[in-house]
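Chapter review: from sequence to fold.
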Amino acid sequence: MLLLQVKVYGRIFRIYLYRYMYNLKTDPGETKDISKTFPEKFNVLMEAYDEYAKSVGVIEMEEGYSAEGEVGKKSAMKILQNNAIYILGLPVLIIALFLFGRKRRKL
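The token string follows.
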């Protein structure tokens, strides 16, 4: 998840939520983390972000958070809530039909 994109001395840098930094001019595919190569710039950018985040009340997301995963979970729960009668009723109906069929055979 993109956290911050800044331009410093004509270079565009991106910093992600999990604290990576990429030079988009030389690495447009964002494959090489340069936060260790340029620790001074990285720290300056992170301090600026931390100040900004504190001033606007940013709530950090936990590691491993996935918007797609959250949407999937909430959608599944909504489907279960809206269709609980059918989901619970189907096994009851199958068992009832099975028992009815067995009882009928005995007669």
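Two observations follow directly from the output. The chain has a mean pLDDT of 80. The helical segments are 39-56, 67-82, 84-106.
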